[in-house]
C-alpha cells in the first residue's frame, strides 16, 4: 500500500506571484515600448522574416517561470507513504511429535502413513503465521529434529527429510512417553502465551524410561497443552494403537484426542487444531512518509543556469 501527499500545501500560495509574472510577460509580448535605438527608416527590414532567435526570445522568461514552479512544488514537500503493518499479540509455540517407527510405513495411507503425515504437517505449518514450530521424532528413542522456529522453510525441509526408524539404526519399538517428555522439555523455557504439543503415533508405548501418563502430567504441570492423534485402525495387523492411553494423555494435557483413519482425516484434524490454537492479533497500519521532491531542485537549478547562460549569450540585449 502506498499514498501521496504534500506535507506543506499552503506553500502553493507562492504560485500567486508566479501567475502574476506570467500574466505580465504575456501582456508585454504585444506591448509597445520606446525603442532603445532610433532609425530613420525601418521599412527596409520588413522584407526579412523573423529568425529562430527572435521566435525563442521569450524562452529564458519561460524557463524562469518553470523553475519558480518547481521550487514551489519542492517547498510543498511532495511525499510518498509506504504502509507498515505491525501486529500486536505474540504467536504460540508448537512442537510436533512425530512417530517414525517402522509401522508408519504401512500403506493404508497413500503412499504410507509417515509420508501422509509429513504432507499434512507441511500444510499445517504453511497455514501458521508468527508461531514458532518445532519438531520431535521418536521411535525406540526420541530426538530433537528442529527447535521452535519461525523459519518455516528450514522446518519443512527437515520434515520432508524425516526418515524411518530403521534408517537411523533404531529398533522397531515406540517410546510415546519419551516423545512427550522430549517435546515438553523443548517448550519448558518458552514464554509464549500458549505452548502446545501435537503428538501423532500409530502404536502403543513399549519403550523408553518414561511412561506416557507421567510425561503428560509433567507437561501439564508446565502449562503445556497436548493434542493426540492416533493414526490407523487398532484392528490392523500392522498397528496396535493404544487409543485409551492417547485419550488419557489428551485429557491430562487439556487438549483433545483424534483418530485418523485416512489421509483426509489427518487434514481435517490438523485443520481443526489450527483453528483451536488461533491467537487474536490486532494489525496496526502506519504510513512512513518519504520526501520525493529532491529531483525538482536539481531540475530548477539546471533551468536557472541555462536561463542565465542564454540571457548573456544568444539572447543578450543591449542595456
Structural notes for this entry:
The protein is α/β, with parallel strands linked by helices and 319 residues long. The protein folds into 2 domains: 1-27 and 53-84 and 284-319, no CATH class; 90-279, von Willebrand factor, type A domain (Rossmann fold), CATH 3.40.50. The chain is built from 10 helices and 9 strands. The strands form 2 sheets. The chain has a 6-stranded mixed beta sheet, sandwiched between helices. β7, α8 (243-252) and β8 (257-260) form a beta-alpha-beta unit. The two termini are 57 Å apart.
Please describe the topology of this protein.
Layout: E1 2-6, H1 15-28, H2 52-55, H3 59-75, E2 78-88, E3 93-99, H4 113-127, E4 132-138, E5 142-149, H5 152-160, H6 176-187, E6 195-201, H7 212-221, E7 225-231, H8 243-252, E8 257-260, H9 263-276, E9 282-291, H10 294-311
Parallel strand pairs: 3-4, 3-6, 6-7, 7-8
Antiparallel strand pairs: 1-2, 2-9, 4-5
Helix pairs in contact: 1-3, 3-10, 4-5, 4-9, 6-7, 7-8
Amino acid at each position: 500500500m502506498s499514498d501521496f501527499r504534500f506535507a506543506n500545501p499552503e506553500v502553493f500560495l507562492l504560485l500567486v506571484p508566479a501567475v502574476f509574472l506570467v500574466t505580465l510577460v504575456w501582456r508585454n509580448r504585444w506591448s509597445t515600448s520606446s525603442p532603445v535605438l532610433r532609425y530613420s527608416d525601418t521599412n527596409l527590414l520588413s522584407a526579412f522574416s523573423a529568425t529562430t532567435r527572435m521566435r525563442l526570445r521569450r524562452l529564458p522568461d519561460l524557463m524562469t517561470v518553470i523553475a519558480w514552479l518547481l521550487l514551489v512544488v519542492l517547498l510543498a514537500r511532495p511525499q510518498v507513504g509506504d504502509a507498515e503493518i505491525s501486529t500486536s499479540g505474540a504467536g504460540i509455540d508448537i512442537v510436533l511429535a512425530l512417530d517414525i517407527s517402522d509401522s508408519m510405513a504401512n500403506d493404508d495411507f497413500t503412499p504410507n502413513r509417515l509420508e501422509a503425515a509429513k504432507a499434512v504437517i507441511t500444510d499445517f505449518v504453511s497455514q501458521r503465521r508468527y508461531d514458532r514450530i518445532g519438531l520431535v521424532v521418536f521411535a525406540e528413542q526420541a530426538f530433537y529434529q528442529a527447535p521452535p522456529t519461525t523459519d518455516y522453510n528450514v522446518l519443512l525441509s527437515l520434515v520432508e527429510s524425516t526418515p524411518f526408524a530403521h534408517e537411523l539404526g533404531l529398533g522397531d519399538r515406540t517410546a510415546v512417553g519419551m516423545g512427550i517428555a522430549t517435546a515438553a522439555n523443548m517448550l519448558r523455557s518458552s514464554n509464549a502465551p500458549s505452548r502446545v504439543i501435537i503428538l501423532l503415533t500409530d502404536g502403543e508405548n513399549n519403550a523408553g524410561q518414561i511412561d506416557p501418563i507421567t510425561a503428560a502430567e509433567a507437561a501439564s504441570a508446565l502449562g503445556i497443552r497436548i493434542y493426540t492423534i492416533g493414526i490407523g485402525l487398532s484392528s490392523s495387523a500392522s498397528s496396535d494403537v493404544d487409543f485409551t492411553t492417547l485419550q488419557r494423555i489428551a485429557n491430562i494435557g487439556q487438549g483433545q484426542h483424534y483418530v485418523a483413519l485416512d489421509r483426509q482425516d489427518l487434514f481435517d484434524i490438523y485443520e481443526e487444531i489450527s483453528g483451536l490454537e488461533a491467537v487474536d492479533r490486532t494489525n496496526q497500519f502506519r504510513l512512513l512518509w518519504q520526501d520525493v521532491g529532491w529531483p525538482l531542485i536539481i531540475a530548477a537549478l539546471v533551468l536557472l543556469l541555462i536561463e542565465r547562460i542564454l540571457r548573456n549569450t544568444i539572447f543578450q540585449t543591449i542595456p
